[in-house]
Amino acid sequence: MTVEDTAGPATRADARRNRALVLAAAQRALGERGAAVSLAEVARRAGVGAGTVHRHFPTKTDLLEAVMQQRVDRLAVLTTEQLAAPDPGAAFFAVCTHVVLSTPANRDLCDLVQSDDGWPRALLREAGGRFHRALGALLVAAQRQGAVRADVTVTDVLDIFTGCVAIQRHRAGSDTLAPAAALIIEALRATPSAVTEPARTARNETVRSDETPAPCPVCGTPVARSGTGRPARYCSPACRQKAHRRRHTPSVTP
Hints:
59% of the residues lie in helices and 0% in strands. The chain is mostly helical. The chain folds into 2 domains: 9-58, Arc Repressor Mutant, subunit A, CATH 1.10.10; 60-189, Tetracycline Repressor, domain 2.
């Protein structure tokens, strides 16, 4: 049993408030300075003593894990709330945009979680599972609406998040998607027939058998036409030469 469990209601409330202050300060400090920030710096920003930080988070690893769990839980809550949206497609793409825009600020934390150095992942796995389930449900709803391609899976979406976040890091501090990231996310959309560009009618440059051949402008002889390619204008090379000389010979006015 912890000290907080045996304390009175007022003490427990203070402990929860201090923990929330520490986590908020850690979020800001880690976003600005990365995982190298010290617990003393976090305590200073939170306005609490170093002992308070150590009481809630004995090691910096514990604090980092709690910060990441809080962030993933927020994504899970946001995604779950969007399940009630009247437009599942718009809600799905809003969540995608939010994830890509908000994640680069936590680059060091993401790199740490993805490393293989004994990082404790139990809490993160639980939070990640909640987010993945909510994202999967929202994806299915958007696909039923016809807003997202039917062949897309949650794994595909998570892979796209990874790529788009890497692209978005080159535009640090931007509140809009990088053009390349926007293109990748747009590729998830199903192509609506209503906005599909109509196919252009190919020009048929062949001559139907029932068409009357045009006469040669030089001698009046019907011009034989081939089945493909540009229609001939003159009946023979000789008439073509005559026409050429006429065009380039200056006329004499009587």
